[in-house]
Amino acid sequence: MKFFIPAAGFGTRMKELTRDLPKPLLPVNGIPLIYYSLFQAWVQNAEGAVINLHFYGDKIREELRNFKPFPIYFSEEKKEILGTAGGIRTGLERAGWMGETISVVNPDFLYLPEKGFKIVATPRTFSADCALYLLPQPQNASYTGLNLEGDRIRFGTGDLFYVGIGILESSVLEPIEPETYADL
């Protein structure tokens, strides 16, 4: 499976912690967050990963300069940040991965799944162009709540939250022009 790791964001909710460091490099137990995402990809036998860069992207590139378990393709958003959908679309285009099924693993959510967890290639298991992995909202948590309404996910005050892992048929991004801003 091929992976996309969105790492271009400004980390504004982290305030002072990201003043001089991009959020994917914030350490948890001495390990930068992005390595937890790369570990998830490695456990899933990643063929490669695209990581988009913008805010302190040079620091992320430098941190990962000796990463060897699988190929990493950096997609720099130099002039302006492209948003989640624009960043994914542009990164996949640059890597030559349009037409592929991609797993998106966010580097700002620490999730250590149970042994044997597998990211399933969605189109082979049920009919969907995109699937998000959700869990029940912990008591007193402040995550963005999600509701399931039939086959749709609605943002709001629901009792589920997105764990930062999803599957995406890249064809859903074809209407978006590469190098343009688009959010999900």
Automatic annotation (TrEMBL):
<protein>
    <submittedName>
        <fullName>Nucleoside-diphosphate-sugar pyrophosphorylase</fullName>
    </submittedName>
</protein>
<dbReference type="InterPro" id="IPR050065">
    <property type="entry name" value="GlmU-like"/>
</dbReference>
<dbReference type="InterPro" id="IPR029044">
    <property type="entry name" value="Nucleotide-diphossugar_trans"/>
</dbReference>
<feature type="domain" description="Nucleotidyl transferase">
    <location>
        <begin position="7"/>
        <end position="111"/>
    </location>
</feature>
<dbReference type="InterPro" id="IPR005835">
    <property type="entry name" value="NTP_transferase_dom"/>
</dbReference>
<dbReference type="GO" id="GO:0016779">
    <property type="term" value="F:nucleotidyltransferase activity"/>
</dbReference>
<keyword id="KW-0548">Nucleotidyltransferase</keyword>
<dbReference type="Pfam" id="PF00483">
    <property type="entry name" value="NTP_transferase"/>
</dbReference>
<keyword id="KW-0808">Transferase</keyword>
